[in-house]
Amino acid sequence: MASSTVISNRPFKAVETLLGGRGVLRVAPRSSLDWVKMIRKGIPAAAVESLTRTLGVSQSELAATLGIPERTLARRKREGMLTSEESAKLVRLARVVGRAHEVFENLDAALNWLKSPNAALAGAAPLTLLDTDIGAESVLDTLGRIEHGVFA
How far apart, in whole angstroms, are the C-alpha atoms of residue 32 and residue 106? Predict the structure, then answer.
């Protein structure tokens, strides 16, 4: 019974790394529910820098991808902590990047795919869709299709 109440953290290991690991997050979440608690509390703003470096984008581009005004993001970095809503958006982005890395088996290839227009997404670059849950689901669905050879 306990195994059904504690959800595995395996899919989140890449997310943890992308967000700066324990050095930035200050904890090592062991389950999905630990991530929920962390998001509700707020993720350290230093995780934004870690993801910005990994993606190779400017703070302005990251702000647009997250759907967070750039000035708000800059203020959060000064304050040191994201709100729960901003934390959820950051984790959503990291989850998609982690999934793309898993599918393409190469971070550079994954980032190139995320930044390039995609016919399966009506010509939109996947990163431009991640400011909404539905957009992120569409990108994850497309990655699943690629993984199974539907869009090669």
Answer: 25
pLDDT in tens, 12-24: 789 999 999 999 9
Torsion 9-13-19-20 (CA) sign: positive
Which amino acid belongs to residue 35? W
- What's the angle, vertex CA 123, arms to CA 136 and CA 138, rounded to 5? 20
pLDDT at 116: 97
Helix (H) or strand (E) holding 8: none
- Range of weakest confidence among 4-18, 45-59, 66-80: 4-18
Q: Which residue has the tokens 């299709």?
A: 145
Task: Read off the tokens for 122.
Answer: 């009506």
Q: What is the pLDDT of residues 112-143, one digit of tens each?
A: 999 999 999 999 999 999 999 999 999 999 99
By the 8 A CB rule, do 29 and 9 touch? yes
Q: What is the CA radius of gyration of the chain?
A: 15
Using CA atoms of 20, 23, 28, 33 in order, give the dihedral in degrees to the nearest 10.
-60
CB-side neighbour CA atoms (13 Å) of 123:
0
Q: What is the C-alpha to C-alpha distance for residues 141 and 61, in angstroms, rounded to an integer? A: 23
